[in-house]
Write a structure and sequence with these properties.
The protein is of the alpha+beta class. It contains 3 helices and 6 strands. Strands 1, 2, 3, 4, 5 and 6 form a 6-stranded mixed beta sheet that branches.
Amino acid sequence: MIGKTIKSIITTDVSLIALVPAVRMFPYVMNEDTPLPALVYTIDSIAPDYNKGGWANDSVSFSIHSFARSYDSLQSIVSAVRSALEMTNTGSGTQDIGMITLISFEEGYDQGADVFYNKLTFNLIINTY
């Protein structure tokens, strides 16, 4: 469903793939021993909306998790992810979507793994599949 659209956008954005190769962008879980930087995208929730005629649209929340060894690298990746997705309204295949908007931003550092991470959460409306 919306995963195809997310994958299509992030794996074809020239600025983003210059920082994170498309083969290091994964749905839900990163392959073990993947070299960093890498991205993981998740669908967090889908809330359908109905009217008298039935299904009207779906409101979707999804996240892009970025991982890097340096904070500077992470910031460049996060900026590229945001630029690739925010305000985009092109769905994959026959999918008609509204503009993608950023709704939250979180980041941190995992000292045990020596990894900086970021989570950008976006929202969009799917009008047709």
